[in-house]
Write a structure and sequence with these properties.
5 strands, two-stranded antiparallel ribbon, about 80 residues, single chain
């Protein structure tokens, strides 16, 4: 029986950072070199709860290549493991 995938069907895992913004239904899904570091950075910004907006600009590795977010628009962040072939 032929194998449908060239890597022998082995699943790989990657972690993405989900950024939930005020007024949107779907999160931004960001793929970065160090997802845990980005998660911690954004979590710190949420904890500070500063009324003064800070512009956050990141370069990513996924379909979104660059992103700019105002710190006051972030309402939640999450880490998500994804399996792929």
């Amino acid at each position: 029986m032929p194998q449908p995938f060239s890597n022998g069907g082995q699943l790989k895992k990657r972690t993405s950072v989900l950024v939930f913004l005020k007024g949107t239904t779907a999160p931004l899904v960001l793929y970065v070199e160090s997802p845990i570091a980005l998660y911690e950075e954004l979590s710190q910004i949420l904890k500070q709860n500063s009324p003064t907006p800070k512009l956050i600009e990141k370069t990513t590795m996924g379909p979104i290549k660059k992103v700019c977010i105002l710190s006051t628009q972030i309402c939640a962040v999450a880490l998500q493991d994804e399996q792929y072939m």
